[in-house]
Specification:
There is one protein chain. It contains 9 helices and 13 strands. It is of the alpha/beta class and 351 residues long. The chain folds into 2 domains: 183 residues, Rossmann fold, CATH 3.40.50; 158 residues, no CATH class. Helix 4 runs antiparallel to helix 5 and helix 5 crosses helix 6. The longest helix has 32 residues. The chain is globular. It starts with 5 loop residues before the first strand and ends with a strand.
Length: 351
């Protein structure tokens, strides 16, 4: 029987945004602990996650500071300025959640850089730019930390090329791998149909969490997960009528988002994974998509705004962990896709 020593997370475990989700780390680290295993995250991956979190935080600070200036103009107490995030803070949070941060040795960092420069292993050109050093580095750090023995490791990564090419260059066996957490659950081979009470419990929770909740926009899922895990823009999933045209400047899209979740249902069976003590199922959400547009008026002096909305469906795999009589959701949906609906109408209005 395959004995798991460690589960290894790459940054793409956390979706396209590659921002750290401490709850996910905490839940899987706890599950590993039940089986005398560990959850490993390379130091390089931790830095990547931290950089993405800092970048998002810095963007929000600009918005926050602009609002503070407005508050001051209105004569309202603007409150304290928002502090920046330090990469060390993110690392401490990841370690506190139970992950082992695997160090990168100097020799591995040098070899990883040479992989990129010499275009060997995972090194390659993308749009004329040499890349691959970071991909090589995190794999090398994992192999070194396991003293070259990859048996007993499960690596969760969407980048199988980097993993396989680096292992080949190091002349070690490629560890077992899963492309995402959903595939990891099946690889653990301890999944079964949930009992009727558990399935009913999960179904009620899905309905309450996504539809009957007070979580607001995106119904409790982080905005970027529901809006950008797949392409929300209408041009990427079906054809809509052209925007109104009156001979003036064309409309430019400012943003698009899912404004409302109208209903949620489970598609197929609910599975119980004994290894991680979690429930998972494919869920389908009926949603309302809203797009915001802007343009200059006919005289080029003022900005006009407009919006349009239309229905759609979001389907994805959701995993939630069982904690006694409650269910804990880490905020991640996997394998998300947007689908069209039949006989829909587009609502267009000027703002």
């Amino acid at each position: 029987m395959f004995k798991i020593r460690a589960i290894v997370f790459d940054s793409n475990v956390f979706g396209k945004s590659a921002q750290p989700n401490v709850k996910t780390i905490e839940q899987w680290a706890e599950a590993c602990g039940w089986h005398d295993a560990e959850l490993w995250i390379s130091e390089i991956v931790v830095h990547e996650l931290a950089q993405h979190a800092i970048e998002e935080h810095d963007r929000f600070i600009l918005t926050y500071e602009a609002h503070q200036r407005n508050l001051a103009k209105w004569g309202v107490d603007a409150g304290e300025p928002m502090l920046p995030i330090d990469p060390h803070d993110v690392r401490e949070a990841i370690e506190a959640a139970g992950a082992v941060v695997v160090p990168l040795e100097d020799s591995d960092a040098r070899d990883a850089l040479l992989d990129q420069v010499l275009l060997r292993g995972p090194g390659q050109r993308k749009s004329g730019v040499k890349t691959g050093a970071a991909d090589s580095a995190w794999v090398r750090s994992i192999v070194a930390y396991s003293v070259g023995d990859t048996d007993g490791l499960i690596v969760v990564t969407g980048d199988t090329h980097a993993l396989e090419q680096t292992c080949a260059d190091l002349d070690v066996d490629v560890p077992r791998q899963a492309k995402n957490l959903g595939e990891l659950r099946h690889l653990l081979d301890e999944s079964e149909d949930a009992s009727e009470p558990m399935a009913s419990f999960f179904g009620s929770w899905v309905q309450n969490h996504f539809v009957n909740s007070s979580h607001g926009r995106s119904s409790g899922i982080r905005g970027e997960d529901l809006d950008s895990l797949a392409d929300v823009g209408y041009s990427n999933w079906w054809d809509l009528p052209e925007l109104p045209y009156d001979g003036y400047e064309t409309w430019a899209e400012q943003e698009h988002s899912i404004s409302t979740v109208r209903s949620a249902q489970i598609v197929g069976n609910v599975e119980h994974d004994r290894w991680s003590d979690s429930l998972s199922a494919c869920i389908e959400l009926e949603v309302e998509v809203e797009e915001q547009y802007a343009r200059q008026d006919s005289h080029g002096q003022q900005v006009e705004y407009a919006s349009r909305s239309f229905p759609g469906r979001v389907r994805g795999t959701l995993q939630a962990f069982v904690d006694g009589d409650t269910i804990e959701f880490d905020g991640l949906l996997e394998d998300v896709e947007f689908m069209s609906v039949e006989d829909f109408e587009v609502e267009w209005q000027s703002i």
